[in-house]
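During the reporting period the student researcher (J.K.) took over the structure-prediction task from the postdoctoral fellow and processed the backlog of single-chain submissions. One of the processed entries is reproduced below for the supervisory committee.
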Amino acid sequence: WFPNKVERLRAAATADPDADMLAHDEFETALDGRRVRKDLHLLHSPDKPLLPQLFRGCFLSTSAVAVKTALLKSVGGFDATLPYAQDYDLWLRLAPTARLRFIAEPLSLYVLRRGAISDNLDGRRLCMRRIMERHRPVLAGLVGPERAAAMALRFALGVEWNHLRALAARRRLGAAA
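J.K. obtained the following structure tokens:
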């Protein structure tokens, strides 16, 4: 966390007391050591329902989100039965009722590491499929069954595409080492 993170979260919560979920941009240090600014707020449309947006792709990071306790408890917190992507599942469960406000400023640094939970590409891929099927009925209630089926297909293809990109990046890094 950057030194001003808590102060900025507190100011955002005071400025918008109806928001029960705050998020901010962050920097990410990739496995190859590059630092990338992630302007996550650009992926969020505050005037549109949050669930379909998150179903298209996760733009929230555990280290860049603060949630009011009451909202977090109302959905049961993290699902400890999921071996991977517990945070993404939580965001999807919060999305139907959450009032998200973004702070368009990086307030933390996320560092990717070999051997971390997100580094298990096969496990993460299988878990993402499970999460998609779990949340598809809720999405269908918002956008209709046909559109939800199309979004689920895009989601599954996106998971596979990201998996292939991550494998290729891992091979490149291995070859460079």
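The committee noted the following: The longest helix spans residues 145-176.
J.K. will present the remaining backlog at the next meeting.
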